[in-house]
Write a structure and sequence with these properties.
The protein is of the alpha/beta class. The protein is built from 14 helices and 32 strands.
Length: 548
């Protein structure tokens, strides 16, 4: 399909109207720039991600927003994307393009590039959530320089916030494979009307030749070392393509085409080495060790022969296996195995000499060490004792009261999903039995003197929703979604194997039977059981707290 014959809808801050392609702004007629930066949001079937991204854009300072053009290009999403867009029409100035049919991601990207009217254009993924505090500094750099390519590092140790390069080879060797991360690159719009990208459709890398050509034709380019994205942005919702085909054959093929146009042979070899180093850990973990992944890893040998070559790939393997990171990893694993063996040996020798006394002392010492380590990672009150925990993620979001006790197998996961920080609060004198799992992305609260049995799950979220569009995605690729907080009152008793699901409030003094699946709120002092849990007794008890 020729994208010039699409019939987009253009929305601005004040009105809504449909225009034909003849009325739409033309990149060929561009003589000056009214805006410094065009932020393009190509999207398909991710309405909730788009909503979060629009919320981030609302935080841009008004003076900066006047220098920015925002374009949302909807690739005929079957979900409620149009309703999300409509909700922000009165809050934020932007242009909304909706394709009459799905034209594929590459053609949707190209449509965004051709519609951009700013001095620079930024293709921003709808799920790469933007952090705007440093946007003002970036706009100042873009206004005062004539860059070809600006690359924003997702992570890096360079302390220079804006590193300007006049040697393109040096910059490309540092970027290498990360030029493919669409949201990390801002490019000048000068070449967009002139460059042909038809040969790169369906490569998943349509924008990369534009980045390289623009960088080659400008004297200055820049790498930005500031946190513009949420942590882990580069891996969210990625997948569905063959990793070695895209990052091996396709990417090295694009770099090869530019060897005669300004990229030196030496730099090209260094870039291929870095691409090979990037690919090897995926092969090692998911092909050799057969760990699960959402990426396709078929025909590895074929794509290696067509790209970096098998010998360069083998050298990458040696560098990976004998790298400082892997050596530390294996030394840690070996050290842990030795510690377990020595602990087992000492404990059994002491049991032979003085069974009960030494066994009790060993358990107390181990609990003390584990409890101290646990308390150092959370905000805990006095006399917090944890026999053992399998996982503690996001400990800075956890608050625990005095005299907390937990047996082994405790699993706490507090995950920041979006702009909202998770909050997990546990009151005084709370006791957990073995293998209690708490999963929080919004808010979970457990009241004083509550007792939890073994194998209990309390969560305020799920992987995605039950919408048909969401169900077509792999579960691990769906965004975390919370239906509401979980609040458990004081003096509650939760039996073994119970599951407390999102949006549930359990009143004071309630009893949750073993194996109950609690999907609705429970009144105070009620006794519930079953799947789904239902009230089996509601005694007339005075609504007063039980004495400790």
């Amino acid at each position: 399909m020729d994208i010039d014959h699409l019939q987009p809808l253009l929305f601005d801050h004040d009105d809504t109207h449909e225009v034909t392609s003849a009325e739409a702004p033309s990149s060929d007629a561009r003589t000056s720039y009214d805006k410094v930066l065009t932020i393009c949001l190509p999207t398909y079937n991710r309405a909730e991600c788009l909503k979060e991204q629009m919320e981030r854009l609302l935080t841009i300072q008004p003076d900066d927003l006047r220098k920015i053009e925002i374009i949302v290009s909807d690739n005929c999403s079957p979900d409620h994307t149009p309703q999300v867009v409509e909700a922000y029409r009165s809050k934020l100035p932007f242009i909304y393009l909706r394709n009459q049919e799905n034209i594929g991601p590459d053609r949707n990207f190209l449509q965004c590039l051709r519609r951009a009217q700013g001095k620079y254009v930024w293709l921003l993924g709808d799920d790469d959530f933007l952090q705007t505090p440093y946007l003002h500094q970036l706009l100042q750099q873009l206004e005062s320089h004539d860059f070809g390519l600006v690359h924003i590092r997702v992570s890096g140790k360079d302390k220079i916030p804006f590193h300007i390069f006049t040697d393109l080879d040096d910059m490309l060797c540092q970027i290498a494979v990360f030029i493919t991360f669409m949201s990390s690159n801002i490019v000048s719009t000068k070449l967009i009307p002139q460059i042909s990208l038809d040969d790169y459709f369906d490569t998943h890398l349509l924008q990369v030749p534009l980045y390289l050509q623009s960088a080659l034709e400008h004297r200055e380019n820049m790498i930005v070392n500031l946190p513009f994205f949420d942590s882990g942005a580069e891996t969210q919702n990625n997948g569905g393509y063959n990793l070695f085909e895209v990052f091996g054959r396709n990417l090295t093929g694009i770099y090869d085409r530019f060897e005669d146009n300004g990229i030196s042979t030496r730099s090209l070899m260094e870039i291929k080495r870095r691409i090979s180093d990037f690919l090897f850990p995926y092969w090692f973990n998911h092909v050799l060790l057969r760990r699960p992944t959402h990426l396709k890893l078929d025909h590895v040998r074929k794509y290696l022969d067509e790209s970096v070559g098998i010998y360069l790939f083998i050298l990458s393997g040696f560098r990976f296996i004998f790298s400082a990171k892997m050596i530390r990893h294996w030394l840690t694993k070996i050290g842990q195995a030795i510690c377990r063996a020595v602990s087992w040996l000492i404990s059994h020798l002491l049991l032979l000499v003085w069974p009960h006394c030494f066994a009790r002392g060993w358990r107390n010492l181990r609990t003390t060490i584990i409890s101290h380590r646990f308390r150092s990672q959370v905000k805990a009150g006095k006399n917090c004792h944890v026999t053992g925990y399998d996982m503690l993620s996001g400990g800075r979001y956890v608050e625990i009261g005095n005299r907390f006790n937990s047996l082994s197998g405790l699993r706490i996961e507090c995950i920041k999903a979006g702009a909202t920080q998770p909050s997990l609060k546990i009151g005084d004198d709370v006791t957990f039995n073995q293998r209690v799992h708490l999963g929080c992305i919004h808010h979970i609260e457990i009241g004083d003197r509550t007792l939890l049995g073994s194998d209990i799950l309390i969560t305020d979220h799920s992987h995605g929703t039950t919408d048909p569009d969401d169900l077509h995605k792999a579960p691990r690729s769906r965004s975390l979604h919370s239906k509401g907080s979980v609040v458990i009152g004081s003096d509650v008793w939760i039996g073994d194997g119970a599951k407390i699901l999102p949006g549930v409030t359990i009143g004071q003094g309630a009893v949750i039977g073993a194996g109950a699946i609690v999907t609705h709120s429970v009144p105070a002092y009620a006794v519930v059981a079953g799947n789904p849990a239902h009230i089996i007794r509601l005694p007339a008890v005075s609504d007063q707290p039980v004495e400790s």
